[in-house]
Amino acid sequence: MHPDPARAPAWSPSRNAIGLWAVQGAVGALVLAAVVVALEVLLPLPTWLALLLPVLVVAEAVVAVGVAPRLRFRVHRWEVTDEAVGTRTGWLTRTWTLVPVSRIQTVDVTRGVVQQLFGLASVAVLTASSQGTVRIPHLDADVAARVADDLARRAELVRDEAT
Amino acid sequence: MRTSWRIVLVHTITFRQARQWVPAVLAFGAFRGLTDGPLAVVLVVALVTAISLASAVLGWWRFRYEPGPTAIVVTRGLLSRSVRTVPLDRVRGVEVEAPPLHRLLGLVRVRIDAAAGSVQADEEELVVDGLPPVEADRLRAHLLVRRTVAVPGEGEQAAPAEEEFARFDDRWLLYAPLVGSYLAVPLAAVGALFRLVDELPRRWRPDLGRPDLSDTAVLAGVLVAVAVLLVLGSVVGSALVNWRFRLVRRGGSLVAVRGLLNRRHTELEIDRIRGGTVTEGLGMRWVRAARATALVTGLGDAARRGQLLPLGPRAEAWAVTGRLVEDPGPLRPHPPAARRRRLVRAVLPGAVVAVAGAVLTVTSGLWWLLVAGVVLAGLGVPVGLGRYAALGHVAGPRTFSVRSGWLVREQAVLQRRAVVGWQVQQSFFQRRQGVATVVAAVGAGSGGYRALDIGAADAVPFAVAASGRWAAALSPEPETG
Lengths: 163, 481
Description:
The complex is a heterodimer of chains A (163) and B (481). Chain A has 163 residues and is an alpha+beta fold.
């Protein structure tokens, strides 16, 4: 393996994000389980398939609830420096995004229904280019509000042409 | 203010407002049946013309534009009134065009590009249709007033100095048959003709019989005819759009004039230009032809409006691009891993087919799939090498450049200030081979320009060199690297 092309940003999302991802994974696993139950009841499956499907569902549930959220928590990183805001996401394909504060056009904070249950919020930093968007998912709501305020205020101060 | 009443004539003839009534009239005709002979046809034509005239008059009567000191207000609509107010500082460009019928009546159409960001493409434009050229010039000057104010000196405003950047040479029309988009022109025309023939009543259709295509001479004749048609059509199509293209700098604007039947006059602010692209298709590369396009922030329909040279010799395309964006120097090639990756990608589909073919050959003696797969994989080799040869990147003192693409090779030259963000992407395989893809996010053109598969260690230094110190926030710490 070669060294990474870029540095991992310093900060992680809120630890509550693990809970949120686990809930999302559990819901997905439940849907899958319902589909499998329906299949087993309605269709005359061969015995080996009838035994294999529940095993797969359980395995998926373990991964989606127990493993994937922790992995995601480790993979998602973000950081705000004096001059820029950046993130790293992705496990197999990793993507680093960096936007200078001077080119920020708008900063959005969104709180989904499930996010509110966990006291979380996401921040999106938008620029003049659709490909220059930094999305920081699942921060503690007060952290998200503070970051958005800070970025918006500083962008106002140092904005040059912003395009 | 109103547009000229003569526009009513244009709109009546072109059924501009009445077009939406056509289906209703057709349905009526079909219901009544047009069996009453020529009288009915005349009646229908008269009726349609009357409707067209009435709606053109109403449309003209209800249309108002008011260029105010800070904004332009356009009011229109027959039943539901729509009032649009566009602040003058949102006006990104003004285009004056003169379609043939307009020219006959001494009128022009003014398109005002007021890109508002989130609105749909068709709402980004205000159209004031049917002004005398003098009036249109006055409107354009008014809309772009804050630019002329920025230019010091009254004399310059009266007669701004013109500097010619590019002029279309008629001989360049001969490049057209090698450009995909111009070749599509005659194809589209033939398609439309066939549709028309299809809809004609059977007894009006010419009876051609069935030409015997098995005859070699006939087949060859048809092929030659098709080739000639394609070549002629593409040249004519290119001539219609690009006729006497001329690009001049007038004060702080670039003005492009082009077109044979429909003369277009496009204006864009030099201050908003962030870079340029030079694109060469596969066919264009044979004859060293290229096209040059300016990357302009917040310009609607940028691919057409930003054209610096629609078609011409490569040297000419680079010359006009170089006048607007500094040349960052010769491109640096990408590492050998990039070549390997391009080759694998190009050969893989053929290889998969070949493997499937090999299995089939063994199991059922079906050999042709194997041959097809091997041929496909073999063709992949030059494609992959061509893709690799196209790759390149360089960061100069004030600009940087990236190049990629094989079917259409595009080199983008961008100013440092164009960059609004960076993206570094690394897939699992890229990580194993020590390469990464760097995308410069730009608020112009396609929004992002990629340096594909550059050395992983070069990624952040390139980003820093191409934009600024802020990009160093990405650089890996030496102790953990």
